[in-house]
Amino acid sequence: MMAKKRVSIKDIAKKLGISITTVSFIINGKAREQRISEELIKKVQDYIDEIGYKPNHVAQSLRLGKSKVIVFMAEDISNQFFASIARLIEEKAYQNGYKIIYCSTDNDHEKAKELISTFKMRNVDGFIITPTPNLEKDIKNLLDEGFPVVLFDRWIPDVSCSHVIVQNEESAYQGTMHLIEKGCRNLCFVSVMSTQSQMIDRARGFRKAAQDSNVDYQECLLKFHNLAEIEPYEKLLEFFEQRPGIDGVFFATNYLAFEGLQAMGVLQRQVPEKLKVVSFDDHYFFNLYKPKITAIEQPLEMIAEKLMETMLEHLGELDKVYKPVKVVLANRLNERESTL
């Protein structure tokens, strides 16, 4: 069977009876600068959607030249974890002649989709993304169009895409076993309601450790939120108030630990005398808190290094078949006073 011919800008122009230049302006987001009518813009965009046209990013790069810009799309760029990696990536990108554009998705698919569309039209060279839920199709489209893409913090099982992640399940298992070895027999896992790979893996590691050790455990799942919202904290406060027998808590991420520690303080649940605490995602605050909090530290420097190494590898192979690079890095458990 013969391969289906790829539709070109020339084909679109011929079909619609307009110039190739006009189609190019519209596809590349420069129509309004050229004072092309809204009616014509819509006509071209509707036809493009109808035929499923995808611009060839490789061809654009060869024709227009590289922008030397990489997009870094994080869940929340103000979060210490993402901000630290962003700063490290910026330095590594600059050393290799690239600039970084930062943006936050707020874990919102529609916002992520709009951001991707905007940056595609500006002919950026590649995307480093912490994927939101339901972003599979958009990632596949980027890859189909020839954009280098590297995911981090989480990956998408159904999409063959490069990613840099850490050992979430193994580290959660280690952190939970640490609580059990310190004498905890009634454990709690605090996380968010999420289908994202990193949260699923951390929950799996927690459960496996509890089941392997035959100890009691329960889970408190909160909606995805930011620290300004009060409702999740109130639910956490109510959860612990109704369960005074809990003697060990594993927080799936540091901002949940902040809220949990606040709740324990209100309930006068002494740490580590009454219950012991471990959190994923170490934070400088954990060294300032009294008592200092045991936490799992992700290798930020190595994550940034592998992200840029993988991106640069893809950027150097634009004319070759995309071959996903999959990196999984080890974490470190920093034992402190909260588990004494």
From TrEMBL:
InterPro entries: HTH_LacI, LacI/GalR-like_sensor, Lambda_DNA-bd_dom_sf, Peripla_BP_I. The keyword Zinc does not apply. SUPFAM superfamilies: lambda repressor-like DNA-binding domains (SSF47413), Periplasmic binding protein-like I (SSF53822). It holds the Pfam family Peripla_BP_3. Keywords: DNA-binding, Transcription, Transcription regulation. GO terms for molecular function: DNA-binding transcription factor activity; transcription cis-regulatory region binding. Transmembrane segments: none annotated. Residues 7-64 form the HTH lacI-type domain. It comes from the Bacteria. This is Transcriptional regulator. It comes from Indibacter alkaliphilus (strain CCUG 57479 / KCTC 22604 / LW1).
